[in-house]
Design brief:
- This protein is mostly beta strands.
- The chain has 2 domains: 92 residues, RimM (Elongation Factor Tu (Ef-tu), domain 3, Beta Barrel); 71 residues, PRC-barrel domain (SH3 type barrels).
- It has 3 helices and 13 strands; from the N terminus they run E-E-E-E-E-H-E-H-E-E-E-E-E-E-H-E.
- The strands form 2 sheets. The protein has a 7-stranded mixed sheet. A 6-stranded antiparallel sheet has the order 3-6-1-2-5-4.
- The longest helix is centred in the middle third of the chain and has 9 residues.
- The radius of gyration is 18 Å and the shape is elongated.
């Protein structure tokens, strides 16, 4: 996988005759599949492919993705256990999704290890970077910039934000580096 790619799912099963992929979604990346027109698949030992998507529907704990008619069936067969990826640029464009940072209010904040850190209690738009205010479970207040180094994933459906690198980027209510 190229360095500027982010894994957002894994192809668990394929149906070449129907040009279908059953994809398990990485936690926090369900929104990446919304309105997806082309899917980028990193097949181990082969070049990355980008077939057109005909439809996507939720099928229990997986997404059922039907590829467009021009996709060769033998290529679909090779996609089993491949990674679904997006480029960093695609993620950044998708992350904003026309939303305001104020829509983060009330969302649960988790660390990349899955621990619940707290919830978003405030949001500020600034010329440089938007800033979120996180009220932690232990009563502290953290200010963190809304940048890729901090916001790892946003799951709008589950209303959760996954964060990382707070030590380097967040400031606590006592204005000390966390």
């Amino acid at each position: 996988m190229a360095d500027d790619r982010i894994g957002i799912g894994t192809v668990k099963a394929v149906n070449p005759a129907r040009r279908e992929l059953r994809v398990t979604v990485e936690p926090g990346h369900a929104n990446e599949f919304e309105e997806m027109k082309w899917i980028r698949v990193a097949i181990p030992g082969e070049a990355e492919v980008r077939p057109k998507v005909k439809s996507i529907r939720n099928d229990g704990d997986v997404l059922l993705i039907e590829l467009a008619a021009g996709t060769p069936r033998d290529l679909v067969a090779k996609m089993r256990m491949a990674k679904v990826v997006i480029s960093v640029g695609e993620r950044q464009a998708k992350a904003g999704n026309g939303r305001s940072v104020a829509e983060f209010l009330g969302m649960q904040v988790r660390t990349i290890n899955g621990e619940i850190l707290g919830s978003i209690s405030g949001a500020m738009e600034t010329p440089a970077n938007d800033v979120i205010e996180i009220e932690t479970r232990d009563g502290r207040t953290l200010l963190a910039p809304v940048i890729d180094q901090v916001i790892v994933a946003v799951d709008w459906e589950a209303r959760t934000i996954t964060v990382d690198n707070l030590d380097a980027h967040a400031v606590d209510s006592d204005e000390e580096t966390v």
